[in-house]
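Annex B. Sample input.
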Amino acid sequence: MTRKFTRALIAGLGLAGLTLAGCTSTSPTTAQPPPTASASTTAPASGTAPASPARPNFVFVLTDDLSWNLVQYMPHVRALEAAGTTMSGYYVVDSLCCPSRSAIFTGEYPHDDGVFTNGGNDGGYAAFNKNGDQQKSFALALHDSGYRTAMIGKYLNGYQPADQIPPGWDEWDVAGNGYPEFNYTLNQNGAQRHYGASPQDYLTDVLSAKATSFIDSSASAGKPFMLEVATFAPHAPYTPAPRYAHADQQLTYPRTSAYDTLPVNPPSWLKGHPPLTATEQDKINETYRERVQDDLSVDDMIGQLEHELQVKGLASNTYFIFSSDNGYHMGEYRLGPGKQTAYDTDIHVPLIVTGPGVPAGRVVSALASNIDLCPTFETLADLPVPASVDGHSLAALWHGSQPAGWRQAILIEHHGPDDSPGDPDRQDYGDGDPPSYEAVRTATALYVRYADGEQEYYDTARDPDELDNIAAQGVPAALRQTLHALQTCHTGSTCWAAAHLS
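Annex B, continued. Sample output.
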């Protein structure tokens, strides 16, 4: 990287350290993904937060398409890693925006909440409503128990600013098409407001200001709060804040052994992809630089929210959670920039948390899924978790417990190909557009079964970049049985039982 960008990053790390002073005794951890879950087991109990004089607050920052290899350029996120706990075995139920976000709200797998895609009969905001998912949202549960709640930024694919405010939200500042970061409209508590192309209209900065204001008003109200800030960054078209445009022109994409390489025995949808051309590789480097620049304003927002929590005296009783709805491949397996596959590039994303009772500088390898966030929020808010929720609370893990008998597998479900006109996540052959599949990820394996019967099986302990498909040698019966059990489970107890290898 250039000297100018290096100096800026070092200065940012110093500022982040000051922001979290008193919370951490370790230096920031590496920005690359922590090792994926080990084979050791941990235990089932949900657990609760340590005793506190008041119910805790939540600040949940959810980014769009953020991959682990961007974190190294986000000093405030790196400081969160040092000050809190990183869930290194955290995966999403589908590497696609709306199914992932729906699972977060409801705590249910796509086969239970009915949201498999971004639109049409089986996806998007319409499917979320059709399946009664509004009533399952953690926001409604927290709101009805006395929490102030705020949804700021991106909600679900298909939601438009002219639509009604869903139940359970006290503050609502949500865009429809906010991907360009300029020239968008927000539904601001029922009133539509258009923002233009001036620097002060940059969406991530507007979201930051509104989130800061919500923290301030919540402090004045003296009530616990749940604040979700869902950025459109760093989703395409990767528009940076004007202050970060051209922040660095020499960054190159961090390549793994999967870059420009096909797996042995690839599935049919991937098999014919040719090597990346020099032009395609140059474009990948350019896109990566744009994504880094786009994320710098997200990192600024995190620092601003942390500062506001401290100023208002709320930091010690607030869980600050950082994550992404899915990952992003760029050149791996000879694919152009995209997602939707079952590979770790797309399903393995950051989950970092700080807060009351959360150990500093800790990495937890236990398998976790984004269906676990809903029951975690409800558990920490001292609310009952409905039996219909497929996920399991992470509260015990967040607070340093290592109970025995934790899950051994998680489910990934995808409906494809995703080539609907107008879908911001539409991908073509070059970017990767796999057909429907079900997959199971364990601490040491990835097993994928496509709707047409094709299979992939990777021993990730030996082959962490998932390059040697050994399905033809035989898939262990335990993986096949676990996949079937998970894709047919429908309650918290049955999904928990299914998540243990036979």
